[in-house]
Model the fold of this input.
Amino acid sequence: MRIVSGIQPTGNLHLGNYLGAIRNWVRMQDELVSPKGPNGGGDCLFFLADLHAISMPHDPATLSANTREMVAALVACGIDPDRSTLFNQTQVPAHAELQWLLCGTARMGWLNRMTQFKDKSGKNREGASIALFTYPVLQAADVLLYQATHVPVGEDQKQHLELARDIAQKFNNDFGGGKDIFTQPDPIIPPEAARIMSLRDGGAKMSKSDPSDMSRINLTDDADTIMQKVKKAKTDPEPLPDEAAGLEGRAEAANLVGIYAALAGTSVAAVLGDFAGKGFGVFKPALGELLVEKLAPINARFVELRQDRGALDAILRKGAEKARTLAAPTLAAAYDALGLVRG
Ligand code: TYM
Done:
């Protein structure tokens, strides 16, 4: 098994990233990569998608700072740079090279269907960057470059992964000469917490780009901030139902119960078993306390790790060196398959 996944270093890691993706990364690393042998049952590559981050208007100094902060945050969450390969795209030029090679295979019609481009460009399609449009091709390159077999992501990345599979299949058919140049990756989407919603609007996903900080729990929030955000979270006046079906049409309530279940490592049904008939005056403080209990140790590690810029840069350098080695054969095979003469 080869696990590959990425995160954009834009702003803080939030609860959606953690429950939807990062927690699974850590789980897969802990299950797969033996501490004794070099990558016992498989290997894990996790990267900061800094090249993706320039597809939207950005401030260069903030991007550099966020890249290092994101390394600290991932290590604080449990990613172990000795067991997983942790790096940023920029230090592995093969990502950008393969993207260009795949641009000959990806079709305009496929990219036109990508909902993220529609969401992020909004009414200003003509003013959106080309990078935002071709973003999913870079994402395909990110995983195909390493022959990824599994890609742990939240629900919102499913469409991009389907595109990566389509690109791999067409490239193999058109240029493989009977061989598979690329492996078709399977998305791993958690059954619970695949889509954590905003605390202010149960119809919008929790996101780094939401202008309201009250809409999300950041992994860097202190205990008081977490309790405040949960207290102010939008809800409805009804008590909690005794089974999951009773949460239908109650997006905000369903979101909070889902967060509780994911954090407690239990099911929505079990949470409702404990809180049926109780109002949010009881449920919210319990959820706030659970969040503080689970996030405080991560926060404490993060605060310590982020101080040491030298150590964070060293992690990225070491990870990139490994990633460059792993990427080289597939990149070479793609150039050769296309008939490009490298000398
Ligand atoms: P990004 O940076 O937006 O998010 C990182 C991961 O967090 C998940 N996620 C969520 N899960 C549940 N609920 C939410 N509200 C929520 N918000 C974010 C995302 O699904 C993702 O798994 N394009 C990607 C980064 C990327 C990538 C890749 C991922 C670039 N190349 C290759 C996988 C493989 C992105 O912007 O994720």
Observations:
- The longest helix spans residues 309-337.
- The chain has a mean pLDDT of 95.
